[in-house]
Specification:
619 residues; alpha+beta; Glucose Oxidase, domain 1; 4-stranded antiparallel sheet; 49% helix; PEP-util_enz_mobile_dom
């Protein structure tokens, strides 16, 4: 696609991939690009949506942006940044920030924000404890929802107990509660997140003004060494590796094992039985994390698919037996953090500046663990449960022929959330009158069309951004989370003609590493990683941390200094560059590259291209 004079392609210049028009049109009307969108800047949110979106899965974008906008604009009242608009084309989600520019409105919002944020910061620990209770209660509510079913005849107990509400009504009740609960989860998600970033950003701004030469990475290292629930699943895998060695069953864990066979073999020996008991301790709740970032139904949880933890066990066991340390370098990070905080404090001239510095870094340390910890409860535990409950409706509709003779329960995710409610109503009507539902004739060809569209969209790259590049991007969350800055966009626009072997991004974690690039474009390709590879991906997330023992460095298309990938890389001491824009397009699988995590530069060292690109698996 050709660029406009001032920047990236305009939204109106994008065309729907031929043959997928019907699938594109099925997304909600309010997510479709319109001509007016040409006047705005958009970027591809590959951080959260790196793969084409199934139609039901779009609820993960919609619910998130509804809640984010409400908290930005109406609850916390951020002074200059409201929410984000989102659009979808060819299965790819683009977002654009909604900013406040009127000085009077900013002043009004500053006054509101200060009193609201101050109350949260003052009561942070108490409120966060209450928040965990709210999330656990919400999870329990979802777990308690009954499995939808329709009996041949309503039991007499229904009316004898004075209820007299037929089973068909419960289908609607269960489904609507699932949708409501998922939306409510996202409101809980954003209750603290933006304030967590806000505390860090305030400290960041202070440091930039007080120490003009300080790097973004130096500031980020001042909040490293955190303890957060999202790291706990990996800690549990390490614990199980140590138990396997201790109990003498470590020889059962090898690469490419048959997991079911290993579980069966362990159940036959005493040490194995004890290890299996320890596995159950770890699984609930800590294996309620998905292999992705919680936005796709097919990124199953470790509990649903043990492949991720079992793939990590052999490496951890080998290192334990060799006497190597497998722990995160938390103590070292804390020591470095405290030294940095102390050294920079000594550069301040006045007691007033030192007091402000102490207050800001103290607040950042108090609130920052939430920035990662919330993901365990929200994007992972709750979202995985939500998708599994939707699968129960898939099972019910499959049993009633809605997906055709060759259908599977997963076909339910090719329906939008509105269409799924319509299909449920269809089934309710048919069950009530004793007639055949219309769904078995209606849905199979539509599902086939959408399956084909997803497969086709996967083959087509999409521009990292759309529209004219703005003079400045002032939304701090967009800067630090997504890594969208004016300077970075200029780098993205560079087609490589000036230096075709170099990519620039954010310096996420220092260290210089040379190695073989392994371009991973979907979760299904993680298994291709070999010891010492450099991971090149659109984005990674904390639940990939068990594979960090294999890789020597990481590079991503998107992400800023406070992106999840950058945070996790620092916590594991993994050299990384994030926010390169086009790494997965410009770096070929198998090429040798150099990653300079301290300078934020990736260099392609050779032009070796493999004979065939790895095929992307159709999800």
């Amino acid at each position: 696609m050709t660029k406009t004079q001032k920047g990236f392609p305009l939204p109106s210049s994008l065309t729907v991939v031929p043959g997928t028009e019907a699938a594109q049109a099925a997304y909600p009307y309010y997510t479709q690009f319109v001509p007016e969108d040409d006047g705005k800047f958009w970027f591809y949110n590959s951080m959260h949506f790196p793969e084409p979106m199934h139609h039901f899965d779009m609820i993960t974008a919609e619910a998130a942006y509804v809640a984010m906008g409400a908290f930005n604009t109406r609850v916390h009242v951020l002074p200059t940044a409201k929410g984000v608009d989102h659009r979808i084309i060819n299965g790819r989600v683009y977002i654009g920030g909604v900013v406040v520019t009127d000085p009077d409105e900013i002043a009004e919002r500053v006054a509101e924000f200060q009193q609201r944020a101050f109350w949260y910061y003052e009561n942070w620990e108490t409120l966060y404890d209450q928040w965990k209770d709210k999330m656990k209660a919400l999870i329990a509510e979802a777990q308690a929802l009954p499995t939808p079913s329709l009996p041949d005849y309503e039991p007499m107990a229904t009316f004898k107990e004075g209820n007299a509400v037929a089973a068909s009504h419960s289908l609607l009740d269960i489904y609507q509660k699932q949708i409501e609960g998922y939306h409510r989860m996202w409101h809980h998600h954003f209750e603290f997140l933006l304030l967590g970033y806000g505390a860090y950003m305030t400290f960041f701004d202070f440091c930039k003004k007080a120490f003009p030469e300080i790097s973004d990475q130096a500031i980020s290292r001042m909040v490293a060494g955190m303890e957060a629930e999202i790291f706990r699943p990996d800690e549990e895998v390490k614990r199980l590796a140590r138990k396997a060695v201790e109990l003498g069953v470590d020889h059962h864990f090898t690469d490419s094992v048959n997991i079911d066979q290993v579980l069966a073999d362990l159940d036959k020996v005493s040490g194995g039985k004890e290890w299996l008991s320890e596995l159950e301790v770890s699984r609930n709740p800590w294996f309620n994390v998905s292999s992705g970032d919680g936005f796709y139904h097919y990124h199953r949880s470790w509990n649903d698919d043990l492949s991720m933890p079992f793939a990590a066990l052999p490496g951890y066991i080998e290192k334990i037996k060799a006497g190597q340390n497998i722990e995160r370098p938390t103590d070292q990070l804390i020591e470095e953090r405290e030294a940095l905080v102390r050294d920079y404090r000594e550069l301040l001239d006045t007691d007033e500046d030192k007091a402000t510095y102490d207050q800001l870094i103290g607040l950042a340390h108090r609130v920052f663990p939430y920035v990662e910890g919330h993901k365990f409860y929200c994007e992972h535990w709750y979202t995985n449960l939500f998708f599994n409950k939707i699968r129960e409706f898939g099972r019910l509709l499959l049993a009633h022929g809605f997906f055709g003779p060759d259908g599977v329960e997963e076909d339910v995710f090719h329906l939008t959330r509105y269409e799924l409610e319509a299909a449920i109503q269809d089934l309710m009507l048919a069950w009530g009158v004793g007639a055949e539902p219309r769904g078995p004739q209606h849905w199979p060809p539509i599902i086939a069309t959408r399956k084909a569209a997803i497969a086709e969209w996967t083959k087509h790259p999409t521009p990292p951004a759309l529209g004219n590049v703005p003079d400045a991007i002032d939304d701090p969350a967009i800067n630090m989370l997504w890594g969208i800055t004016r300077e970075n966009l200029d780098s993205w626009l560079d087609d490589g003609s000036e230096n075709s072997n170099e990519l620039k991004g954010f310096a996420a974690c220092s260290g210089v590493v040379e190695g073989t690039a392994r371009v991973v474009k979907s979760v299904s390709e993680i298994g291709r990683l070999e010891q010492g590879d450099i991971l090149v991906c659109q984005v990674t997330n904390p639940t990939w941390s068990p594979i960090f023992q294999k890789i020597s460095a990481a590079v991503s298309d998107i992400g800023g200094s406070m992106s999840h990938m950058a945070i996790v890389a620092r916590e594991y001491g993994l050299p990384a560059v994030v926010g390169t824009g086009t790494a997965t397009l410009r770096i070929k699988d198998g090429q040798r590259i150099r990653v300079d995590g301290g300078r934020g530069i990736v260099t392609i060292l050779d032009d070796v291209t493999p004979a065939t690109e790895p095929a992307l698996e159709d999800a």
